Amino acid sequence: MAASKERITIQDIAEQSGVSISTVSRVLSGNAGVTEPKRQAVLAAVDKLDYRPNLFAQGLASGQSMSIGVMTQNFGSAFYDAILRGIIAGVEKSNYSPLFADGRWRTDIERRALQTLLNRRVDALILLGTQLDSDDLLDLKKQMPLVIVSRSVAGLEQNCLVVDNYKASFQATTHLLDRGHQHIAHITGALSESNVLRDGAQRLAGYQDALRKAGIEPSPKLVVEGSFRSQSGLLAIETLLTRGKPFSAIFAANDQMATGARLGLYRRGIRVPDDVSLIGFDDQPHSAYMTPPLTTVRQPAEEMGLMAAQAVLNQLQGKPFALPMVSAELIVRESVKHIY
Amino acid sequence: MAASKERITIQDIAEQSGVSISTVSRVLSGNAGVTEPKRQAVLAAVDKLDYRPNLFAQGLASGQSMSIGVMTQNFGSAFYDAILRGIIAGVEKSNYSPLFADGRWRTDIERRALQTLLNRRVDALILLGTQLDSDDLLDLKKQMPLVIVSRSVAGLEQNCLVVDNYKASFQATTHLLDRGHQHIAHITGALSESNVLRDGAQRLAGYQDALRKAGIEPSPKLVVEGSFRSQSGLLAIETLLTRGKPFSAIFAANDQMATGARLGLYRRGIRVPDDVSLIGFDDQPHSAYMTPPLTTVRQPAEEMGLMAAQAVLNQLQGKPFALPMVSAELIVRESVKHIY
DNA sequence: CGAGAAGTTGAAAGCGTTTTCACAATAATA
DNA sequence: TATTATTGTGAAAACGCTTTCAACTTCTCG
Lengths: 340, 340
Fold this sequence. Notes:
The structure is a homodimer.
Chain A: H1 10-17, H2 21-29, H3 36-49, H4 55-62, E1 67-72, H5 78-92, E2 97-102, H6 107-119, E3 124-128, H7 134-143, E4 146-149, E5 160-161, H8 165-178, E6 184-188, H9 198-213, E7 223-225, H10 230-243, E8 249-252, H11 255-267, E9 277-279, E10 296-298, H12 301-316, E11 329-331
Parallel strand pairs in A: 1-2, 1-3, 3-4, 4-5, 6-7, 6-8, 8-9
Antiparallel strand pairs in A: 10-11
Helix pairs in contact in A: 1-2, 1-3, 2-3, 5-12, 8-9, 10-11
The structure holds a DNA duplex.
């Protein structure tokens, strides 16, 4: 565990095993032939002295940092954190290690964080829900392997890993319809924020189209714009109630807002699911423990992280890679009532 | 934004400003006198060419990486993530940048992750709830500035930042007593896990002593050991109910278990707080949105991160530093009923 | 058996900084 | 004014690795 007193270098290994440092470097990097006996000798020395190459020296000499920059938007977001875990797992068995940064959903902060990553000479980049504009992204893409998760960028479709929000949302709404609900409200995610977060818009579209397909014309009175935050879910209930148009179910564009909505209903003494049914989106860890447990749409976040990591690794090795559109899955729990 | 085509080096700056690279280095690092005109010239060149020193070269030459290793135990834990955010904020204005790793509460994984950090030559370390044994930690402490958050280690008291679990727990229990509760159950955190997670034990002690102080002998039948996970909170309700000893309130050692317990009560048709009152610990973001909103103990996680960062930065500069025991605060919401 | 191809190897040249060293220039002291 | 400190400065030596280059072996094949 403890690093030895004196830093040992490639020179030490060379002496210990009676070869030149070039040879040591070669056996360690593996990209050149070395006769077996020398190879063994070097390996033995490495093992004996517990040698660990100096990454700075390696980086300086080779121009590679053996690290992959990963930009999240918020440490603490259940969805993104799960992706992070997936990325860690995916990168684990490679020689690369991830370098994290947090954009905190603010373009200026993200740009600064990106600079830090770039300064550290990351060899590749994984961007989660980035706010950067497409020009910057296209530029980055030219410089190094790139994967963008949870946002699709025109011209970079190859490099984007997104879930089919529309379809998932369509399904969730259909689930409600199948259970006999006719008057279904929707709390949207943030809609306006320029190019970002179009997740919200896609989910809204899925909801509307599902309704139409069932022969129901979506009513503007039943959709209220949220911000993906719990608070906005709470507020949405007030708005909905004030508008006075009755509804028997609510589909929230994410679990946080569903949670907020749930509290709003509780405050008004409206029972879930007896009086109003509720569906969320994301399947946050705690959603399974809500009262009642929340029916929601699960995005395979961890798997997505894994896929992103794999794709980046493949690019790094010049191998082909593909990022299919991943589909989400409805998790049926107890927040939806069957109406007869 | 985009890095220029050709990497520009200190050499370019030297030429552009008509001085030697030594001088450039000096004005940039600031630790040697340079006459004002040259200084200005260099700065101008740096600005003009948008020069950014190569961190590898710097690291190699100076032996410093200008990075601080930060080990968390789980991306996705509300408490730890908040600390992470605090650390980021605290380190932001310095020249250092954080390097994150995830120990996932598994000693072997943590050791490996630590090695990665060490290989990257971090200049200092912040360890959150580490599982490493004290010998390793003492060893690390000798090598570099170190701050350990949320765990106290014998011989390293100076370097540990912990919250007063005992006191907070005592207060939470007292709150229940003050509201007239006599039969208070406790769902503990993980107790047995060797040296780690003694948070659980401290919270248990606080609970017991508060009871005793009120003249109530704590009953073993009312405490059930949990694991800090939601699931164990759910199970605990079953255990408690099976034991048959009545209780009017539950104090869970964290919010996750409180959430689990809440679901358990819901399943049994036991109302909160009408039939049973509930208190948690941690004040997770979503706890404010539970039904009913959960009374809980808030640890100032983000502030703790800030303090940890500051302490590490001070150490790095050879300045004195201190890590006071931070105290938690009871957040009264709606999950506790006043019994008359 | 001999010529060229292929495989091994060490010396040495970077990679882009920081830092030591020696020297020159300036300021302070006598 | 002559000496001695003090500063400011560039050349050059690290820092620890990768990679090119050239030399030397060892194969292959006609």
